[in-house]
Amino acid sequence: MIWRDALSVPLMLAFVSTLAFAIQLLIFAYLYSSHHVRFFQYLLWAWGAYTISKGAKLLDTLVPSFDALTLFLSGVATVGAVGFTLAAALAHRWNYRLRERDLVGGAALAVLLALATTGWGGEENTHLVGMGLGALQVLAGILFWPMGPRLERCRGERLLAAVLALWGLHRIAVQFVPPEPATATYLAVHTVFVGLYFLATFAVIIMVLERGRSESERLHARLREAERLATAGELAAGMAHEIRNPLAAIVNATALLTDEAGLTPDERTTTLAAVRIEARRLNRILSDFLQLARPKEARRTPGDIGAVVEHVSALIRDDRSRASRVDVKVAVDPRVPRFAFDRDQMIQVLWNVALNGVEAMNGRGRLSLEVARRDADVALAVSDTGRGISPEHARRVFEPFYSGKANGNGLGLTIAERIVAAHGGRIEVDSAPGRGTRVTLLFPVEGI
């Protein structure tokens, strides 16, 4: 009965502390599997050493006959834990790395200090070693505190620094007021210790997750930069390819024009007309490229999309050179509400899509422009009776400079997709060889 009363409090504290330390060690090990940061590795080792130290004290409470061995093991583990904590602080601040000689020297020092506290000088050496370990822990806290521009800032640093410093001061204070087992002071001292340990664990988890998030953001930024450079390279290659043909035609035409005796007046007129056509083609390519590279910001105001469709259909009917034998049909659902869009950009998108349909029919067929509601979206559908698109080509129609037309620059649908995306919408393409193509522009309507 006396044994149970005397040891119930120390036994309970030792068991709870060991269990809590082991659980937090498992949490650290799980986090380290995906966050390989050097200072976190050393803290993982430190938390492992604290768990061993608490386990040794629990064994000492359960089996008093192993008193000397368990005290020695606990002392070595405690010294090792403080040493690894200091190494973590140095790694965090100056990217310090433990080497084999450091580990060997630290292990030898831990053994010597453990022997000094258990059998070479008694209580006085124990207090000196305890104050020294407390001072090292305070130093570790100072090193974790963010100071100067060289240290990479992240959340949790100040909390961990403050907790480690308080933990070290607590270790020093205990040397002057050693608590007796199974007393209120003993319970208070261990409660403070466990509380500081939990706060330190919480701060470390915050730091590791924050570092992982920052690293993920940096990787995403590098990926976006690589994608941007790759896209720029593709655009540059596409531009060079598109410019080469009209430029070569202009050079050949100017070479013919220099030979005044070799051309008849009609041939000269035809050659000059070809130069003008190719020059306009170059201007169109450059204009489209500039619009793709530097798109204008959408200035959206509430409007009637039906009026835009009627306007584009009139432009197609009036274009006799390309749509002289195209039957243009317009169907606008009167229930479609007004919504905010950029009128000029919407006209351009609808014109580009409709013109692709006209050219797919070689200027002969039926072109349908339809406006209807689809759930929370307004759907603008452009259908043609042309030759259609194969599935492998349909996946590439929005790529810059990809075109199935002999004189197309492949930027029309790319620009259209970007404008639609700027309006918060999307484009769907339904096509198959021999049965025409249906392109649907979907725009979200907010607030209805």
Describe it for me?
With about 450 residues, the chain is α+β, with helices and mostly antiparallel strands. It has three domains: about 1-220, Rhopdopsin 7-helix transmembrane proteins (Up-down Bundle); about 225-295, Helix Hairpins (Orthogonal Bundle), CATH 1.10.287; about 300-445, 2-Layer Sandwich (Heat Shock Protein 90). The protein has 13 helices and seven strands. Strand 4 (about 365-375) and strand 5 form a beta hairpin. It is elongated and about 115 Å long. It starts with a helix and ends with a strand.
Order of helices and strands: HHHHHHHHEHHEEHEEHHEE
Structural shape: elongated
| CATH class call of the largest domain | Mainly Alpha
Question: Number of domains in the coordinates?
Answer: 3
Q: Which architecture of the largest domain per CATH?
A: Up-down Bundle
- Strand order in the sheet with the most strands: 2-4-5-7-6
Q: State the helix count.
A: 13
- Alpha-carbon distance between the two ends: 77 Å
**Helix share, percent:** 55-70%
Q: Give me the count of strands.
A: 7
